[in-house]
Design brief:
By secondary structure, the protein is α+β, with helices and mostly antiparallel strands. The chain has a domain at 9-126: Gcn5-related N-acetyltransferase (GNAT) (Aminopeptidase). It is 27% helix and 33% strand. The protein has helices at 24-32, 49-65, 110-123, 140-148, and strands spanning 9-10, 14-18, 70-76, 81-91, 94-101, 130-136, 152-161, 171-179. An 8-stranded mixed sheet has the order 1-2-3-4-5-6-8-7, sandwiched between helices. β3 and β4 (81-91) form a beta hairpin. α1 (24-32) packs across α2 (49-65). It is globular. The two termini are 17 Å apart. 32% of the residues are buried. The model has no long low-confidence stretch (mean pLDDT 95).
Length: 180
């Protein structure tokens, strides 16, 4: 059995791997500065390459320590460049993911492809019994990704998370999951 999360993962159209500092410009240009892309996320649009480097330094530390959220950048094979990322957090028998995709790739089914691949890798680990993700209740596109990936809406987490691009007040989130 391979360790979860894997350091690389491949799908039909995509290659997932840990982000490095060398990816800062590509991430900055692809999705990190787009206010519409980060609208429902927990960070504001990056204002400088330094913001992106801070993120990537945290990613590298998480991979080195094996603790916290480990992120994989999403490289589109045909385009040959980064188009998004998925964060993965394993806590005991539970895996939670969060994801981001550049706006030009919305509607192509790429994120569903990623979520399914990560879900399948998670359930290849016999210690994982639950795979989940959350989204702001207004983020219907993200909810649809989770549904297409076979996840089920379990409920609403009230005043759960701050999405600073929407409000400084904690917002309601939907919790989607699939269990073994």
């Amino acid at each position: 059995m391979a360790a979860f999360p894997p350091r690389t993962l491949d799908t039909l159209r995509l290659h997932l791997r840990p982000g490095t500092l060398a990816d800062a410009q590509a991430i900055f240009d692809s999705y990190a500065t787009d206010p519409e892309v980060v609208r429902y996320l927990c960070f504001r649009p990056h204002q400088s390459l330094a913001d992106t480097r801070v993120f990537l330094e945290a990613v590298e530390r998480a991979w080195e320590s094996g603790e916290g959220e480990r992120a994989l950048v999403i490289v589109h094979r045909d385009l040959g460049r980064i188009v998004g990322a998925i964060g993965i957090r394993k806590a005991g028998p539970r895996v939670e993911v969060g994801y981001v995709l550049e706006r030009a790739r919305w509607g192509e089914g790429l994120m569903t492809e990623v979520v399914v691949a990560v879900r399948d890798a998670a359930f290849a680990d016999p210690d994982v019994s639950r795979f989940q993700a959350l989204c702001d209740v207004e983020n219907v596109a993200s909810a649809r990704v989770m549904e297409k990936a076979g996840m089920v809406l379990e409920g609403t987490l009230r005043s759960y998370e701050i999405h600073p691009n929407r409000s400084e007040v904690p917002r309601d989130c939907w919790c989607y999951a699939v269990v073994r």
